[in-house]
Amino acid sequence: MAERSTAAVDVADTSGAEPLPAKAGKATDDGARAEKVSGGEMDAARTDEKRADATEAQPPELHSGHKLARRYRLEECVTRLDGFSSWRAVDEKLRRAVGVHILPADHPRARPVLSAARSSALLGDPRFVQVLDAVEENDLVYVVHEWLPDATELTTVLAGGPLEPHDAYQLVSQVSQAMAAAHREGLSHLRITPGSVLRTETGQYRIRGLAVMAALRGITSEHPQRTDTEAIGALLYAALTQRWPYENDAHGLTGLPKGVGLIAPDQVRAGVHRGLSELAMRALINDGATASRQEPPCTTPEELAKAVAAMPRIRPPETAFTTPPPYQRTGYQQGSYRQTSAHTGSAGRTQPVPTPPPPLQSRTGRALKWSVSALLIAALGLGSWQLADTLLKRENDQDDPRNSQPAEGPAKKPGGKPVKIENAKEYYPDGRPQNPEQARKTYDGDPSSYWRSKSYREGPDLNPAFKQGVGLIYDLGSEQQLSSASVGLHYLGGHTTMTLYASDSFSPSAPVSSLRKLGSSQTSGSTAKIKLEKPATARYVVVWITAMPYAPTDEFSDPGYKQGITEVSFTS
């Protein structure tokens, strides 16, 4: 009985029911068993409910193809660290590449990241990579920012060697001015590194991660202006020497020798600009290091920007084309002509040309000249008379009804038969499409609809290092005889360069080198006419654009070098 009573109390404590009386006998045992079963089911139900709640509380698993806010499609994870991840993504609403930082909403840094992103977005300075969106949704916090595919990290630039003095001058000038503007608005970076500075093809520097990167990594500073100034000094030091100004290796750069302290850049590498070397030392307030002339250190980006402005301007190096070649006389000189050899290996050498015979100065010579002139005039007159007589006879023969031939029906037009397009895809051998779903609009018979490319910062000719070209591939249904093509263009201006290729398949990723060239065209107008170099037979035809005109912002894209194709037609 005591054991049954204990069991009843245990079940009651577990299930939350009142304890059963001990004199219930066998019924008590049965009731205890029933309650024990009932209590177990309740515990299992509660456990399942807790698991379901926990599952709902967890953020969704992130992977390529996952879509945020029904708009941002994740493409590639580029960083995964400290509980957050950074992605390359596509904004499907505006059809452009973007970057996204993502972390769970319950992450201890989620609130600081949101606050930093919104503050950075309010700055709106084009020298910084812009924050486009900052959202908390579905237990996630994500920050969307610009993606600059045509820009290069300073880390990559420095891997090729130190910068020229003019480039280093532009780097420290642009970055210090940008950070001075940010600090005036109360914003700091705290993590300026070669990986956070991008150089565009036009030589402009853009800074990414203002305030946001420090918030993501939990970095704070009691002296943010000094921290950012030292970081800019380290960038300049690395740009001048291709070395990191501390003992540890970092950012793909070798550090300084251990135990020697901070050495001025012009003592690390020969040929370093003296003024820039002193400027780097003034910004690097490392153990009291200053410039060799004992000028005061720069403790804020504003002071550094002023010190850069006070320096004599460093001009870009002259290219080989600005230096005139050695002077060479090209006129008649001392009985001989001289000209530069056409061969590259013979540049600078001259080749004598045979001396012309002296002019005829004697009486016999003058008589001979007049005789030759008279003969030439007579020959010209005779030739003109014979030509006129021939044309007259031809006209009389055509008017003579006896020479007329019976008509053989209407004259046949040479070629010009349209070729039907069965299908079209976007062609992107580099694996980076533009707007593939719009390909069908280029042969739908509606000139108001069109396929469009993305906007590029360089042009009109695309930079092969970043983008060889953009285009479309067409399926004509079967092998067709082709003689020309006409391509309607949406954007006007100089210039669009277009090449027609034949492909062996309907693959959008076949390399350009595997295609067979049919013809090319360049235009600044609204239509590109491509006449084949010789008639050819093909089923799959690629329209490949390698140069595009500049166009301003419109409802679909940013300003830049871009093009759209309205209607494409082929003729046999």
Using the 3D structure, state the CATH architecture of the largest domain. Answer: Orthogonal Bundle
On the 0-100 scale, what is the average pLDDT? 79
Number of helices: 11
Helix content: 25-40%
Please compute the radius of gyration using only Cα atoms: 39 Å
> Structural class per helix/strand content?
alpha+beta
Count the strands?
23
Content of β-strand = 15-25%
Inertia-based shape: globular
Low-confidence stretches: 1-41, 50-59, 320-357, 399-414
Within CATH, the superfamily of the largest domain carries the name Transferase(Phosphotransferase) domain 1
The CATH class of the largest domain: Mainly Alpha
Q: What name does the CATH topology of the largest domain carry?
A: Transferase(Phosphotransferase), domain 1
Quote the distance from N terminus to C terminus. Answer: 105 Å
Number of domains: 4
How can the largest sheet be summarized? 8 strands, antiparallel
Give me a quick take on this structure.
The chain is α+β, with helices and mostly antiparallel strands and 572 residues long. It contains 11 helices and 23 strands.
Question: Please, could you describe this protein's structure?
Answer:
The longest helix has 37 residues, at 363-399. The chain has eleven helices and 23 strands. Strand 2 and strand 3 (84-91) form a beta hairpin. With 572 residues, it is an alpha+beta fold. The radius of gyration is 39 Å and the shape is globular. It starts with a helix and ends with a strand. It has four domains: 2-57; 67-146, 2-Layer Sandwich (Phosphorylase Kinase, domain 1), CATH 3.30.200.20; 152-310, Transferase(Phosphotransferase), domain 1, CATH 1.10.510.10; 418-571, Jelly Rolls (Sandwich), CATH 2.60.120.260. The protein has helices spanning 2-15, 26-57, 110-123, 154-159, 165-184, 212-217, 224-241, 265-268, 274-283, 301-310, 363-399, and strands at residues 67-68, 72-81, 84-91, 96-104, 131-137, 140-146, 152-153, 197-199, 205-207, 243-244, 254-255, 337-340, 350-353, 418-419, 423-427, 451-452, 470-489, 496-503, 516-523, 527-547, 550-551, 560-561, 564-571. The strands form six sheets. Strands 14, 15, 16, 17, 18, 19, 20 and 23 form an eight-stranded antiparallel beta sheet that branches. A six-stranded antiparallel beta sheet has the order 1-2-3-4-6-5, with helices on one face. It has a three-stranded antiparallel beta sheet with strand order 7-8-9.
